[in-house]
């Protein structure tokens, strides 16, 4: 049995030995296939990516920022441009802690810089590129020349040129022009595909933001080959940057200057000057303001930022596009509502008295006695409160809201920088029923006192100076609601698609215009008359500040009468004394400069 089994075992053993080469071959084939697959994946499928990574290790692209387009006024005068500035940098990877003191002392001596300032800047860490630290900015030509002469012995330090935004007139039109700031990480992630770089600066507010794509240009760069130590071996090529396009604005530098000047002695306020025929903004000023050059500095401290952004006067807030109680400048809106309702036609006359009681409150006329029996024109001329109480309360909140909406109130004006704009408030019964924006729905119903206040632009009515200017354009141009704009963009702003015909009856429009003219002829706006002032129309306004501060002063006007070519709204925030005392003189100076320049062209 033993012998008979042995051949069988030998056969099995020989069979297993015959299979070993096949197994080994299979294993070799498997490993080779894996290696080939890996090579195919590395060189064919992922080849371009790895070549790019290799090039990035060997090649450095030194970005060259584009020159941002200039902002020009309507006559081609520069409002914003770009300037070259030289800055001192250090690359931390080339200068360790041991080598820094010697380099610092050499730089301080050579460039007349404070060593402790250099230390502090170095400790602040690398800039947004992550490979260098800004040690000093705005070097003088002499400092740059000294550095160039000694640069071979200043390893790790470099002087580079930066292109920064410059505003030659400082604070002038700051809220309108806006400013630029370094792009944020979130913005870079979203905009990298559109050619933005981590070193980019982007328009933050105003025209700079609204026309960012027009102004910014395209980056260029210099391609350098470097070794493993990061040292430049040779220059591989250069692609010049493409400058941004200049932008001509509708602003008039002369009018903007005088608008800023007349605001100088006011605690706050705004001036809006506008062409009622097409909506072109001629001047847009706000106080308090700020210097946009602040945001062009390469190095700013937290203390400087806090002084601006935490300032209780809120210098970054545009008063021209923030909402306030308009006072009697609102009365033409009430007049329009009364005539449109049919309850108070254009020729109506009403008795005015010392005060009229609504609810539990007696609402007075501002002269304490009333003005007798008068119509719309004289009611505007004398700015009679009790006349407009009767018209407003008798017409109702819905009629007033409808007229206000037709004149552009309660919504944004359409100006390019409209994201900064407050839509304001025109209260009515529905608004009160919904909770007035702060209370439980139905808890604070609309009452007669609300309607009386709304009739004269108080409490439940808040509008922006820009909205008011747009509404008065309707009275100046014969019934068209125009779109305010800061750049023509080659568009026809008088086309039907860019202005709306207001459904105002000719008799209504004529009566309001007649009243606004009488205000200036011999009414509360008489002070607007004088040498250098064409025939004009307007309305004074004194408004209680619903937030509890001193009264606001307003004056809304247009000239020449009857078909205006300029609308000027002057607003003096928390400046008690009356619109005729504080706001009217502001508007008068703007109209005077406009008229003088008009005659010279």
SSE diagram, text form:
Blueprint: H1 2-45, H2 47-58, E1 59-64, E2 71-72, E3 78-90, H3 100-111, H4 115-123, E4 133-136, H5 141-150, E5 157-166, H6 174-177, E6 180-182, H7 185-191, E7 201-203, H8 206-210, H9 212-215, E8 220-226, E9 232-239, E10 247-248, H10 253-262, E11 269-274, E12 281-287, H11 302-309, H12 331-341, E13 350-352, E14 355-358, E15 361-364, E16 372-374, H13 376-382, H14 385-395, H15 397-406, E17 425-426, H16 429-433, H17 448-455, E18 461-462, H18 465-477, E19 480-482, E20 499-501, H19 506-522, E21 537-543, E22 552-559, E23 566-572, H20 579-600
Parallel strand pairs: 2-10
Antiparallel strand pairs: 1-8, 2-3, 3-4, 3-5, 6-7, 8-9, 11-12, 11-23, 13-16, 14-15, 17-18, 19-20, 21-22, 22-23
Overall description:
α10 (253-262) packs antiparallel against α20 and α12 crosses α14 (385-395). It is elongated, with a radius of gyration of 36 Å. The strands form eight sheets. Strands 2, 3, 4, 5 and 10 form a five-stranded mixed β-sheet that branches. Strands 12-11-23-22-21 form a five-stranded antiparallel β-sheet, with helices on both faces. A hairpin with a 6-residue loop joins β11 and β12 (281-287). It is 38% helix and 19% strand. By secondary structure, it is of the alpha+beta class.
